[in-house]
Design brief:
Elements: H1 2-58, H2 64-209, E1 241-247, E2 252-257, E3 263-268, E4 273-277, E5 283-287, E6 294-299, E7 305-310, E8 314-319, E9 325-330, E10 336-341, E11 347-352, E12 356-361, E13 366-372, E14 377-382, E15 388-393, E16 398-402, E17 408-412, E18 420-425, E19 431-436, E20 440-445, E21 450-456, E22 469-471, E23 477-481, E24 487-491, E25 497-501, E26 509-514, E27 521-526, E28 530-535
Antiparallel strand pairs: 1-28, 2-3, 3-4, 4-5, 6-7, 7-8, 8-9, 10-11, 11-12, 12-13, 14-15, 15-16, 16-17, 18-19, 19-20, 20-21, 22-23, 23-24, 24-25, 26-27, 27-28
Helix pairs in contact: 1-2
């Protein structure tokens, strides 16, 4: 390509040079001839002047006719000399013009050569870009081939997954039928329990009448009301004795009890959920699957499932009896810090630092609603009727969302001056307890959205963004862990600090949980991996 450009331009320049050369040859010859004639005529003129001067002295007496002929000859010669001067002048002007034209042609030639060099450089760049594009095309074609192969493999796996999903639907239908049967039996038991509670309340009223009078004999109380089951009436006592201390690997971020209080689970930076028996403290099983630190653990209301939220942006749900992962809820773009079961165990609500709350249908296995929040979610809880989601956020605000349509029905903006680290529903479902990095706790009536009480102490410091507080099962006491390793317990109604527990933990206490059916048991965990079981 480069040689063709050079030959074309050189050929054009040579042709133009030949044309201009032959155009000026005649003029140059004429100019040389005129100069030669001028020199010759000047010589002849000098000779004639000499002859004239000699003749003038010799032929002074000649006739007038001869004198006129000589004068005419001299005049003719003078005119020829003038004409020669004129032609020489015109030739010189033509030479000057031709020199100018030649210089102009040379400038044009140099300009063409410069443009030719630029075109050569541009052509080289274009060829380099063409080669690069060819290489990129080959690479893209190779990538496309790989993607086609991956797509075919994914289609095959999708077909297999669809078959497995159909089988899973069948299994879930069977499990649902079994669960409905369990619910029916549980409802019957609850009805029987309610009848017993009504009879017990009636007997208590009768007893109160005779408190300062005659004692009622024990045999006058119906036999079905004499029970040692503490789940019938749960009254809380502040546990002050360390029953046992369990050691986990790394930070323990969260601890949670099962609904019947027979088990509790822990999770933290080692990415493992550990399930313990509440009273013996013996390890029952370990559940793995999380890829990063665990931030939240919850049991389902029917105690069949347990979930764990993780900073790997997912929530996993295990079967408690089988110890296998039943669901892996993935869809958040940020760390998941909060999760909760619905009260029918059919849905899960999750909150993340991607400023979204998601509602997942466990029967369908996917997200059915996404609620866009205004700030990252640190913790959340669900009202007893399942219609209200209460979320605590990084922007220090407490928000209430309608779970049916995702609308924010209320927002409390002045509740705390630091981000909210936990949101806990009271046992009677009428209040929520918030904990905050401003080192205070607040009790909010979710019916009026009013703050009923504030809890704090000069030594209490909330040391983590996920420090969880708890209420006793009778709702009388409030407990939370502090940065100094102590557990602070307040009277809910008076707001007075009741006591502090400080004999074991040497680092920030991340979470405390009260046994929901045995009010004298409390579990606490810290950043050093200690899990402490407290009793009265």
């Amino acid at each position: 390509m480069e040689d063709i450009w050079k030959h074309n331009i050189l050929g054009q320049l040579k042709a133009q040079n030949i044309l201009l050369h032959y155009s000026f040859v005649d003029i140059i010859h004429q100019s040389k001839s005129l100069v030669h004639n001028e020199v010759k005529m000047k010589s002849e003129n000098e000779k004639l002047k000499t002859v004239y001067n000699l003749s003038k002295s010799q032929i002074s007496s000649n006739s007038t006719v001869i004198s006129r002929e000589v004068e005419e000859e001299l005049r003719r010669l003078q005119e020829e000399l003038n004409s020669s001067y004129l032609k020489v002048s015109e030739g010189a002007m033509q030479i000057v013009d031709l020199n100018k034209q030649l210089n102009s042609e040379r400038a044009e030639k140099e300009d063409l050569i410069s443009k030719h060099e630029e075109l050569i450089q541009i052509n080289a760049l274009l060829e380099e870009n063409a080669n690069r594009l060819d290489r990129e095309y080959i690479r893209k074609e190779s990538d496309l081939t790989l993607l086609r192969e991956e797509l075919q493999q994914l289609q095959i796996e999708l077909a297999k997954s669809e078959d497995a999903l159909q089988d899973s639907f069948k299994d879930q239908k069977k499990q649902q039928e079994g669960w409905l049967e369990k619910v029916r039996k549980h409802a019957e038991q609850m009805n029987e329990m309610n009848e017993i509670m009504i009879e017990l309340q009636s007997v208590r009223e009768e007893l109160s009448k005779y408190q300062n009078g005659p004692q009622i004999p024990t045999d006058s109380i119906p036999a079905n009301l004499i029970t040692s089951d503490p789940s019938v009436t749960v009254s809380a006592e502040i546990p002050r004795t360390v029953k046992s201390t369990l050691q986990n690997k790394g930070d323990v971020n969260v601890v949670a009890f099962s609904e019947d209080g027979s088990f509790f689970a822990t999770g933290g930076s080692d990415r493992v959920v550990r399930l313990y028996e509440s009273f013996s403290g013996s390890l029952k099983t370990q559940l793995s699957g999380c890829e990063r630190a665990i931030t939240c653990i919850k049991f389902s209301p029917d105690n069949e499932f347990i979930l764990a939220a993780s900073t790997d942006r997912a929530v996993r749900i295990w079967s408690v009896s089988m110890g296998r992962v039943r669901h892996s809820l993935q869809g958040h773009l940020g760390k998941v810090y909060a999760a909760a079961f619905s009260f029918d165990s059919q849905k899960v609500i999750t909150g993340s630092h991607d400023r979204k709350i998601k509602i997942w249908d466990l029967q369908k296995g996917y997200c059915i609603r996404t609620v866009f929040c205004y700030s990252s979610v640190n913790d959340l809880c669900l009202s007893n009727d399942g219609g209200l989601i209460v979320a605590g956020h990084v922007d220090n605000r407490l928000r209430f969302f309608d779970s049916r349509n995702g609308d924010c029905v209320h927002e409390i903006s002045d509740i705390h001056s630091g981000q909210i680290t936990s949101v806990t529903l009271s046992p009677d479902g009428t209040h929520v307890l918030t904990n905050s990095r401003d080192n205070t706790l607040k009790l909010i009536d979710i019916r009026t959205f009013e703050t009923e009480n504030t809890y704090g102490h000069t030594e209490y410091k909330n040391g983590m963004n996920w420090t969880r507080a708890t209420l006793s099962p009778d709702g009388r006491y409030i407990a939370t862990g502090s940065e100094d390793g102590k557990i602070y317990i307040w009277d809910r109604f008076t707001g007075v600090l009741h006591t502090t527990l400080n004999s074991v933990h040497k680092s920030n206490v991340n979470c405390v949980a009260w046994n929901p059916t045995h009010g004298n048991q409390l579990i606490s965990c810290d950043r050093n991996g200690n899990v402490v079981i407290w009793t009265d």
